[in-house]
Amino acid sequence: MSDQQLIMVVDDDPDLVESVSMKLESENFRVSKAYDGIEALDRIKEERPALIILDVMMPRKNGYELCDELKSSDEYKDIVIVLLTAVADAVTSTSYTHMDGKTTLANDFIPKPIELDKLMEMVKENLE
Amino acid sequence: MSDTLRADGIKLSLEMTLITIRASLSESDPCARFLKLMGENRINLPFLCIAARDDSKSGIYCILSEDIPRAKRVIARGETLATRLEYLPSVGSISVFPHNFNLEFIGVMLSLMGQSGAPMHGLATSISALSMITDFSLLEQVANYLSRHVSLPGNHSPFRPDIRIKSL
Hints:
The complex is a heterodimer of chains A (128) and B (168). Chain A has five helices and five strands, in the order βαβαβαβαβα. Chain A has 128 residues and is of the alpha/beta class. Chain A has one domain (6-127): 3-Layer(aba) Sandwich (Rossmann fold). In chain A, strands 2-1-3-4-5 form a five-stranded parallel sheet, with helices on both faces. By secondary structure, chain B is α+β, with helices and mostly antiparallel strands. Chain B has helices at residues 30-40, 68-76, 103-116, 139-149, and strands at 5-6, 9-12, 16-24, 47-53, 56-64, 85-97, 122-125, 130-135, 150-151. Chain B has four helices and nine strands, in the order E-E-E-H-E-E-H-E-H-E-E-H-E. In chain B, the strands form two sheets. In chain B, strands 2, 3, 4, 5, 6, 7 and 8 form a seven-stranded antiparallel sheet that branches. In chain B, strands 1-9 form a two-stranded parallel sheet. Chain B is globular and about 50 Å long. The chains are: A alpha/beta (128), B alpha+beta (168). Chain A binds chain B through residues 12, 14-15, 17-19, 22, 33, 35-36, 38-39, 42, 57-60, 62, 86-87, 90-91, 94, 96, and chain B through 8-9, 11, 95, 97-98, 126-129, 153-156, 159-163, 165-167.
């Protein structure tokens, strides 16, 4: 197995997944991709990532639910989770905004639209 | 050419209206005027395709159906622009991803769309996805057809965006 660290990118926007993945690969990380929380959980069971970049708003199982599930699991609670949040300031009337106030156990947050260089810094800092 | 193809997913859009603008290359550009107005008024274009051929070009754009009344009001401010637009209501996009920059992917998808019997009003790629525009009423049917012919992850099902964020 490669000694490159595995990063998982989870978002229902395939273009965001692709652009973040390309940047991560250029920084010498391996990348696993998923497009909703259920697919992400399957991939995590196949190979455990060191860090997950996790969107909040997704169909089937959203990022908060997946984050809670992983952080309450003895097996996966040590995986670093960086949440992608887009709703805090922009949308005031969605369930996601209300959930945004909820305490999550994610390790870090980054707002959308993402600055890729900033995200890379965050990934590296959280993996140190 | 193989009829089966691997993909990570299929994403369907909400109901949209397709707008076509045709122009000659020598005239003042109505496509640019249209895009400027949409940008200034923060009207999102989920799909955009511009094609040029000989001395003419055409722009194909989609706007969410719910945004069309506002878009029409904005377009009406654009002097003669309104007369240059052709509207096709009730279309939707089906996006298959990732294409991995593989030309065979486009060939197979075009072939499958042809076999499905659904009309294709537009085609464009993004960094990850190949998006095709068809009648909104046929979107689920096309998605089911493609799902049977494209190898998808075991638990994937075609999905629509859960929530949209608008910048107002």
